[in-house]
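Posting here for the record, re: S-adenosylmethionine.
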Amino acid sequence: MTEVRHDWTKEEISDIYHTPLLDLIYRAATVHRENKDYAEVQISSLISVKTGGCPEDCAYCPQAARYQTGVNVHAILPKEEVVAAAQKAKAGGASRLCMGAAWREVRDNRDFDKVIEMVQAVNELDMEVCCTLGMLTESQAQRLADAGLYAYNHNLDTSEDDYKRIITTRTYDDRLKTIENVRKAKISVCSGGIIGLGETVEDRISMLKTLSNMPQHPESVPVNALVPVEGTPLAEQPRVSVWDMVRMIATARIVMPRTVVRLSAGRTEMSTVEQALCFMAGASSIFAGEKLLTTPNPAFDEDMAMFELLGLTPRKAFKNGRPHQAKNIEESVIA
Ligand code: SAM
Ligand code: DTB
Ligand code: SF4
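Prediction output follows.
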């Protein structure tokens, strides 16, 4: 097993990122095989439980109220609909359901009560439950943990320096604070970013430095390729090259050897060959199901055919136990 470090310098991460491509893939694949079952892929399915009308100004996001993007704005879904989606996702091979809400932050109101009920109901289906609801206080994180929440997604998106260019309605520190609150409640942390926002390679490296120097690495790091959506300020951004995706995934794999690196948004634009390269470079998780939150994603059947072809297998839910039953989060080795 590779030593898990928390003191990576920018220079070290940059050297890794700029390694000749095939050497980089080889090194990442080696780290992957030394630390994980490289043929096992964790599958999450997303559902948007509250869509659109968000007060934030995230420049990439189709759900921000201030951009005219034509998303199907809706209030919080009934629990039954979420349970039905969870059952469908489970039948499609997903071990985890991730519920997203277009909120700046959680408020202690009826809608949060409803989310808590959804978490309990999906947990009862023996699926891992993840939420991404915006900023959380310590007590809200604890309430989610008590309801059986497995993971919380809260992305850093880009570097601290670049953050103001992408989002002005909250700060990087706000983001880090929520991640800390999630940690304190012993919920598994899912935090990563987006490439293709117009950031520099230095910004990507700096974001990886922040993630890999956390006292405990996030159990999951999503690497999203920007899905440019008409009406958002980033609609005209050129698509990111698959080589950038591969470099980002491989570098994340090397600096956070035991983390699940998630090949996230952008797969509809990628061929099976390109996705295979990402798995080779250390990706060990995907979002499956025909929709991400508001944009298209490959269907379950297509992904299962790809798994069959590549010899990959879906990871079972709660493979290493339920986090809140373990004495501590490290021991449960959750991902
Ligand atoms: N409102 C909550 C928040 O911002 O944390 C949760 C939902 S938000 C849509 C979750 C994540 O989706 C964002 O942090 C961002 O990384 C990702 N995302 C949103 N729009 C995207 C896009 N167009 N392309 C790629 N990733 C996107
Ligand atoms: C993450 O890192 N990517 C997912 C999930 N976490 C919540 C969301 C991607 C959203 C892509 C744009 C959309 O479908 O609205
Ligand atoms: Fe709102 Fe989240 Fe979209 Fe930002 S990323 S506009 S906070 S839904």
